[in-house]
Write a structure and sequence with these properties.
Alpha-Beta Plaits, single chain, four-stranded antiparallel beta sheet, globular, alpha+beta, Transposase_17_sf, Putative transposase
């Protein structure tokens, strides 16, 4: 069966994840993280993809991006993957694949989920018990988004910019989002969407994407009254 084209909607952010083959490590030394970020910046600029958030874990990568066109993310990931694999194979005198097949991606409903996905991505090291706060992990965009350190490859999303009138007020408001734990429902919604390559958003957003693309963007419902008040509330309508 032919693969469906990846979901794309003009101006819509995407959550992207790529894992190491068999969940194996893809970063082995500090220099590897630096090389990956350098290749990411180069590819993002070449293919006009704005990078809003990222985290480089030992065996996988998360990105929050907005491409300028339908091919931007796939071209960026292809170029990035090729260069980084060549770098790793040369550096460590290895051969073969590094990544676990194709990267996964999903469209993100900015009005309901964008800042939640920012948090999800940058809190990965905390959930993995690698650090006790996102600020203590050096290989994520929290260094720029939350602490104001220069991270040249970052492009703030419009909703991030609306957190405050100045860089300092934006960063303080952003750090405030990281107090406490993420809701389990948010974690489940994000993981389900990215692992299944469905859209992350409420029903209105999904209907808009379906109308634009002419295809389903979520699995068919299994039981339950989709028009019930409880159902609408659970979908954020």
């Amino acid at each position: 069966m032919a693969r469906l084209p990846r979901l794309y909607f003009p101006g819509c952010a995407q959550h992207v994840i790529q894992r190491g083959n068999n969940r194996s490590a893809c970063f082995f030394d500090e220099s590897d993280y630096k090389a990956y970020l350098s290749f990411l910046k180069e590819a993002a600029e070449k293919y006009s993809v704005a990078i809003h958030a990222f985290v480089l874990m030992t065996n996988h990568v998360h990105l929050l991006v907005t491409p300028a066109d339908a091919e931007g993310v796939s071209r960026m990931m292809q170029s990035l993957g090729r260069k980084y694999v060549q770098y790793v194979n040369f550096t460590y005198r290895r051969t073969g694949t590094l990544w676990e097949g194709r990267y996964k991606s999903t469209l993100v409903d900015a009005n309901h989920y964008l800042l939640t996905v920012y948090r999800y991505i940058e809190l990965n090291p905390v959930r993995a018990a690698m650090v006790d706060h996102a600020a203590n992990y050096p290989w994520s965009s929290f260094q720029g988004n939350g602490l104001g350190k220069p991270v040249q490859l970052l492009t703030p999303h419009a909703l991030y910019q609306q957190l405050g009138a100045t860089e300092d007020t934006r960063q303080r408001a952003y750090r405030a989002l990281f107090r406490g734990r993420m809701a389990e429902r948010d974690l489940t919604d994000i993981r389900t969407a990215i692992n299944s390559a469905w859209v992350l958003g409420n029903d209105r957003f999904k209907a808009q994407i379906e109308a634009h693309l002419g295809r389903r963007v979520e699995p068919k419902a299994r039981g339950g009254d989709r028009k019930s008040e409880a159902f609408r509330e659970s979908r954020g309508q």
